[in-house]
């Protein structure tokens, strides 16, 4: 079945550094790729998403890139801050199914 | 306040005792979904509902049932809970499929 692999599982960076989380997906028909941030004790919250007709999308310090040929997409966080510390999930879906497949999650720690 | 609510937030039960976790959204969203979160496995979709008329299985539907009799509510039913259903459960909703999903606060279930 469809699968999304996410790496790394944990990531520790110094405040101000950049962080990159990578995901690969198996279903070549996937066309929607959201990223969610989950803070401790809370439900996930969307931080950015990208659709297959776009190669890159930015929102302030956050950017996502998509390589459809390689079936690979990445989250880039620049100038990291302690409040960026959380668990991040990538996900993928295709039209007309209703399914959303999540990666395993990345625990990001930003050290002050 | 626009939100997704889940009840109960915490539940301890015994094997075989039927239970229902309620989910309600006040945003007039068409799409609703249930996920379970387990360490190292990320979020896995149990069931989803594209609208009041369409409900279907996600990746891990075994042992669960759902009902979408009205737009705002999407209860998750465990007819005969087993210990392997011990998990953190999230309900989510979005205006339509492949749009921003808003997650509830989660329900932590322990089946003894």
Q: Can you characterise this structure?
A:
The complex is a heterodimer of chains A (112) and B (112). Chain A is mainly beta. Chain A has strands at 4-7, 10-14, 19-25, 32-38, 45-51, 56-59, 62-67, 72-77, 86-92, 101-102, 106-111. Chain A is globular. Chain A starts with a strand and ends with a strand. By secondary structure, chain B is mainly beta. Chain B is built from no helices and 11 strands. Chain B has strands at 4-7, 10-13, 19-25, 31-38, 42-51, 54-57, 65-66, 76-78, 87-94, 102-103, 107-111. In chain B, strand 9 (87-94) and strand 10 form a beta hairpin. The model of chain B has no long low-confidence stretch (mean pLDDT 97). The interface between A and B is medium-sized, with 25 and 27 residues.
Question: How would you concisely characterize the structure shown here?
Answer:
By secondary structure, chain A is an all-beta fold. Chain A has strands at residues 4-7, 10-14, 19-25, 32-38, 45-51, 56-59, 62-67, 72-77, 86-92, 101-102, 106-111. Chain A is globular, with a radius of gyration of 14 Å.
Put simply, the count of helices of chain B is 0
Q: Return the average pLDDT of chain A rounded to an integer.
A: 96
Main sheet attributes: strand count, strand direction, barrel closure of chain A: 6 strands, mixed
Low-confidence stretches of chain B at least 5 residues in length (pLDDT < 50)? Answer: none
- What is the number of E strands of chain A? 11
Overall SS class of chain A: mainly beta
Main sheet record of chain B: 7 strands, mixed
| Helix fraction bin of chain A | under 10%
Number of helices of chain A: 0
What number is the mean pLDDT of chain B?
Answer: 97
How far apart lie the N and C ends of chain A? 41 Å
Query: Could you spell the SSE succession of chain B in H and E letters?
Result: EEEEEEEEEEE
Oligomer: heterodimer
Helices and strands of chain A, in N-to-C order? EEEEEEEEEEE
